[in-house]
Design goal:
The chain is of the alpha/beta class and 315 residues long. It is built from ten helices and 13 strands.
Length: 315
């Protein structure tokens, strides 16, 4: 049985990856910060910001652990960068040669047109910068390992049932006030969380020897206007309010102050505003042709219908 270590297994994407790998018959060890995983081969509870010694034997590591994409440089360095360094060191010391790293479309920066894997990486927000740093650490460490398969997946805007984007968006739309930056025509690529999980399995099954990079996205780049209006229509509510970016930033700042007072984690931060106003349209051609990826949800339209099925205005 092929064995897989999955970091970030308790997260939104990680849970789906664990489920998909388990269903496909792989032996899964889930690494989680909090106990929250169901029936898998084994579970390791550990905060990956600190070294984890004596990893169990495994054929692959799927590294997904990380912080909120809207976090700032300091938090991402304390989490994503430290986690990446620790997982890479511990995994290589354990002799694990095969890796899939969950990177992000934000490594490309302000994409003009549609980004392919050959597009220069020029990240403009903290999330993209830290993801690119971890990519480079992994690739540098892996370049001299014989018979390795190291896969970097640069993932578009992930959505799906139970995901933060869908639950928060649905709640705000139902309340009747969902402010959104007026840069609503920014092009980007969405991808359903189940298709992200499929991409991990495609990498395990079909990745060539050596180091390879793939964009993970559906077939049809869209805009936030497309996505949000379609979501509102499916929910049976009014579409969002599009405001000047300065007003949305002010709204985000007020929300962060309120969250500090209540101890909750903020949803909309100034980095999150920058995140959603950065263009990131991706080509998934290489993923399809080399790894055999075929999205279950070819566009945001089909995916939103599934994600919002139980959240409609009339439910």
């Amino acid at each position: 049985m092929t064995s897989v270590l999955v970091t970030g297994a308790g997260g939104f994407i990680g849970r789906r990856v664990v489920c998909a790998a388990n269903s496909a018959g792989y032996g899964v060890t889930a690494i989680v910060r909090k106990p929250c995983i169901g029936a898998v081969h084994s579970v390791i509870q550990h905060d990956l910001r600190f070294p984890l010694d004596n990893l169990p034997p495994a054929d692959w590591i799927f590294h997904l652990a990380g912080a909120y994409a809207g976090a700032g440089d300091e938090e991402l360095r304390r989490t994503d960068l430290e986690m990446g360094r620790n997982v890479i060191r511990c995994g290589l010391e354990a002799g694990i040669k095969n890796w899939v790293f969950a990177s992000a479309a934000e490594v490309y920066g302000n994409v003009c047109g549609i980004a392919t894997e050959a597009t220069p990486t020029q990240p403009v927000i903290p999330y993209g910068r830290i993801k690119l740093m971890v990519e480079r650490i992994l690739l540098e460490k892996a370049k001299d390992i014989s018979n390795c398969r190291v896969v970097v997946l640069r993932i578009g805007e992930v959505y799906g049932r139970e995901g933060r984007l869908i639950t928060e968006l649905a709640a705000r739309l139902k309340r009747g006030f969902c402010p959104w930056p007026r840069t609503r025509h920014v092009p980007l690529s969405f991808v359903h969380v189940d298709d992200v999980a499929q991409a991990f399995l495609c990498a395990l099954q079909n990745a060539p020897a050596g180091i390879s990079v793939y964009n993970v996205a559906d077939d049809m780049p869209a805009t936030w206007l497309d996505f949000l209006v379609r979501g509102a229509r499916l929910l049976g509510v009014r579409p969002p309010v599009f405001l000047p970016e300065t007003l949305v930033r002010l709204y985000a700042a007020c929300g962060m102050l309120a969250c500090r007072a209540t101890g909750r984690e903020p949803i909309l931060t100034r980095h999150a505003v920058r995140l959603i106003t950065t263009p990131k349209a991706l080509s998934n051609s290489r993923l399809k042709h080399v790894l055999g990826f075929q999205p279950q949800y070819p566009s945001y339209s089909e995916g939103l219908e599934e994600a919002l099925r139980d959240l409609s205005h009339h439910a």
